[in-house]
Each structure stands twice: as structure tokens, then as C-alpha cells.
């Protein structure tokens, strides 16, 4: 599935699990597990608990996603 097929939603990181998996609470109150996308790994962008992020969620499995962007505020 391409990144264009993902639904982009905003959320806040509330937990960092082992293996690079982040727990994120979305704006609508749903909790999802997400990993960093390839470009964030390539450019060594760090995400910590409390950061606001954009998450690409698959329409087929809404419990998993990719962190696409880290917001400054």
C-alpha cells in the first residue's frame, strides 16, 4: 500500500514501546500503534512522548499507522 492511500490524522504520542513502536492518541480519542516512516528514519528525526504528530492510518487496519510528520508545537 502506498503512502497516498493512507488516511492522515493528527495525534499526540503518549507512550514509547520497545522496538520503535509508539502509542498515539488521535484527535478523535482512538489509540493506535505507529512506527516511524522511512524518511524520518533516514534524516534521524527524533520523536518523544508529548510530541504532536501526523499519522498515516490504513483504511483496512485502523489500529496501526506510520508517523509521517512531527510538529514543532
Automatic annotation (TrEMBL):
The gene coding this protein: infA
Molecular-function annotations in GO: ribosome binding; rRNA binding; translation initiation factor activity
Name of the protein: Translation initiation factor IF-1
Similarity comment text for this entry: Belongs to the IF-1 family.
Function: One of the essential components for the initiation of protein synthesis. Stabilizes the binding of IF-2 and IF-3 on the 30S subunit to which N-formylmethionyl-tRNA(fMet) subsequently binds. Helps modulate mRNA selection, yielding the 30S pre-initiation complex (PIC). Upon addition of the 50S ribosomal subunit IF-1, IF-2 and IF-3 are released leaving the mature 70S translation initiation complex.
Record keywords, A-Z: Cytoplasm, Initiation factor, Protein biosynthesis, RNA-binding, rRNA-binding
Organism: Bdellovibrio bacteriovorus
Record's GO cellular component terms: cytosol
Entry's localization field: Cytoplasm
Endpoints of the signal sequence: none
Residue stretches making up the S1-like domain: 1-72
Summary of subunit composition and partner proteins: Component of the 30S ribosomal translation pre-initiation complex which assembles on the 30S ribosome in the order IF-2 and IF-3, IF-1 and N-formylmethionyl-tRNA(fMet); mRNA recruitment can occur at any time during PIC assembly.
Amino acid at each position: 500500500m502506498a503512502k497516498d492511500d493512507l488516511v492522515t490524522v493528527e495525534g499526540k504520542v503518549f507512550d514509547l514501546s520497545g522496538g520503535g513502536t509508539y502509542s498515539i492518541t488521535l484527535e478523535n480519542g482512538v489509540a493506535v500503534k505507529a512506527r516511524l516512516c522511512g524518511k524520518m528514519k533516514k534524516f534521524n528525526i527524533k520523536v518523544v512522548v508529548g510530541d504532536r504528530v501526523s499519522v498515516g492510518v490504513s483504511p483496512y487496519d485502523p489500529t496501526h499507522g506510520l508517523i509521517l510528520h512531527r510538529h514543532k508545537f
